Amino acid sequence: MNIKVKIMTPSKLLKKELTVPEYQRFYVWNQDKIEELIDDLKYFFENNKEDHNKYYLGTILIHLETKKNTNKKIYNIIDGQQRIISLLIIDYVLRKKRFPIKAEFNSKITLKNINNNFKYICSKSIKNILPKNFLNKISFTVIYTKSEDDAFTFFDTQNGRGVNLAAVDYLKAYHLRAIKNTDLLNDTAQKWDKNNRIKKDNESNNLNILFYNILWRARKWKGNNLYFENKDEILKEFQKHTDKNWDIDKIRYCYQINSLSDFNNNQDKSCIQENIIDIIRNDNEKDYCFMLRQPIVEGINFFLYTNKYNAVYDYLFNLPKNDDKQFQYFDNLYNCVYKNKISNYFKYFFELLCVVYYDKFGENNFLKFALYCDYLIGNHRIIKKKIYKESIIKIIKDSSENIIDVIFMAFDTEDVLSFIKDNTPEIDKNSEITYEGVIGEYRKSYINFINTIGINLKNDLDKENIISKIIEISNKL
């Protein structure tokens, strides 16, 4: 794909001959979106007095078209018209100046939204909120491509399969703006990019998966309030609803302070706050003193929180653990059964439960927990002929309590294990269950796992007995 990328202000971009193509003519932003934009701009200008600071407003995708007869360049807006038009309305209210942008707004929806937003902006006394030259204080990442096909391929990637990455990019930009210390900002950005870049080669382990399938679900799946995440929900949880009333270059909510005590030589909390840069460079990220369901504070706290759970995810599902036989057994279970052999819905459910448990109890009885998680998930896999996305929610709802809540609230690991045993559907150990299809694939994968341990397997359906043997062997090591 032949593309060019530039960073520029709206003022500079609007000097080009921008066009809103017919297929992009609907303008759908409502009052809520405008209010959010104005509030964000207001916050930025109140907290950034330096001329070199700019408010980052995402990516604009342009198809650069050259007219054959005149060689005139036309800049067709493929993605970004909602933001551009909204900025133009604000600018018109401030300066009563029209920028030359070609668009025929014949749609009643578009005209209604422009008119409503214009009235709303006028009612906000915008002149007391934003400077007249505010367009010079905003920056876009502008992506140009001369191929219209490439433009829509890129657009589809960003807004279809890649929509999750867009949420991650928004989170990065939003929270970096809150960090005032230059050294801290640079270290934080490098750490984020390193984590994200490494993950892009492995779809099952990136920041996108971490936020969508682990962090958001661990925080939001409470009781029977169960629904699936989307981009707006991710941004609402990790951006809009963050705590802004705090010194954003200091750590807050270090509940599990002892987990970081070795690194800090038992320093008190004030010392930890003073040594943030040392902490962010620390290799023991999975021991950072945060908890999954704690409040999120904007800025450095958000990044350290992310670094911790990215490290936990890596530790559990990617890094070899050769020095611990019990964790080698866990690796064998994950690699044989879950990494590539089972539905992604079950895979991410297994990963979610393991991360939640590890956050609560660490390595205490972790292998036994993972085996019982597989007992729960595996029996549902064998019983159900087809698995859908909603199957995971149904498993949680069909249990006597929400298993995620049970883990978070449990006083002892045995409480969790007992709950799983009580809520796992029974299978007749002597029944004739197929070894064909997806059910058979699961059973063969589980048998392969058992073979790595050296257990003489008579019946792969007798899982409680198998689990007891595995734990007995591991305890002797």
UniProtKB/TrEMBL annotation:
Pfam families: DUF7834 (PF25202), GmrSD_N (PF03235). Residues 13-175 form the GmrSD restriction endonucleases N-terminal domain. It comes from the Bacteria. Residues 186-432 form the DUF7834 domain. This is Uncharacterized protein. It comes from Brachyspira hampsonii 30446.
